[in-house]
Amino acid sequence: MTRLVTLLILVSITACTTSPTGRSQLMLVSPEEAITASKQAYTQTLKPLSDKGKIDNDPVVTRRVKLITGRLISQAIEKFPHTRRWDWSVKVIDDPEVVNAWCMAGGKMAIYTGLLHKVKPTDDELAQVMGHEIAHALANHTAEKMSVAMASQLGMAAIAVAANDSEYRGAALTGAALAATYAVQMPNSRTAEREADQMGIELAAKAGYDPYAAATLWDKMAKVGGSSPPEFLSTHPSPGNRQATLRQLAPNMMPYYKNRKGRPVYPL
Ligand SMILES: [Zn+2]
Q1: How far, in Å, CA of 240 to CA of 67, rounded?
Q2: pLDDT per residue over 69-124, tens digit each?
């Protein structure tokens, strides 16, 4: 136990970085390690779905998601040039019951058809979903969550449970890839949520999407569910006054949104 405390103190000295909004982050896993692990996690997550024909099987939906996401990625690269080297990707997973979307470290994304069918987002609202997800990756939230998981015995126990889960059994995931998979399934902190909201609405406005759609998206999301809340809401807990904060941010985003310069689309 003492060794663990010593380790954590050492880690807190040596492994903290600062997020794009100026917050201190615990980083046991470097962003590069998180990207490598996420690549493996992404392949392993998608493979069984692809085998069942559940990936990108509606060309109209796929085209819509790729166009919106491609515009957001162009803006992400503009603001964070190092992400030009990322192997960006987005896949539409055909599962009408799952209301979810995520972006792993390094820009590996997925959105489930349940989110499209149940939330029925407009293009502006869908851009807010993907912009928010991209922001989590830009702010290294995957690496941060992997670090938190690895630093806590609870987290490691959860990873071990995930390893025994039928979904992952036989998948031969490395510990780090398992932590990367787990990271997109565990809730973000409310602080990380606020950060992703703030960065996401800006990316979306710069990509040509109405900033007022950020608040209406979360309004719609909150109305979906019934007996069980959408996965998206459990992994993205609401910071207090989320919609009100987003509405307050919107006027400052209008100049980006109204700027009629070209909206480049990153090819996906
Ligand atoms: Zn989030």
Answers
A1: 32
A2: 999 999 999 999 999 999 999 999 999 999 999 999 999 999 999 999 999 999 99
For residue 1, the CA-to-ligand 1 centroid distance in Å is 33
Give 162's pLDDT tier (boundaries 50, 70, 90). low
Ligand 1 centroid to residue 134 C-alpha, Å: 9
The structure's pTM equals 0.85
Residue 126 DSSP SS3:
helix
The residues annotated as belonging to the active site are: 133
The band of 226, judged by pLDDT with boundaries at 50, 70 and 90, is: low
Distance in angstroms (rounded) separating the CA atoms of residues 73 and 134? 8
Asked if 140 contacts 34 with a C-beta cutoff of 8 angstroms, the reply is yes
Q: How far is the CA of 27 from the centre of ligand 1 (A)?
A: 19
Instruction: Label residues 118-153 b or e (16+ Cβ within 10 Å = b).
Output: bbebeebbbbbbbbbbbbbbbbbbbbbbbbbbbbee
- Compute CA 261 distance to the chain's CA centroid, rounded to the nearest angstrom: 27
Distance from the CA of 264 to the center of ligand 1, in angstroms? 25
| 8-state DSSP, 200 | H
d(CA 89, CA 134): 11
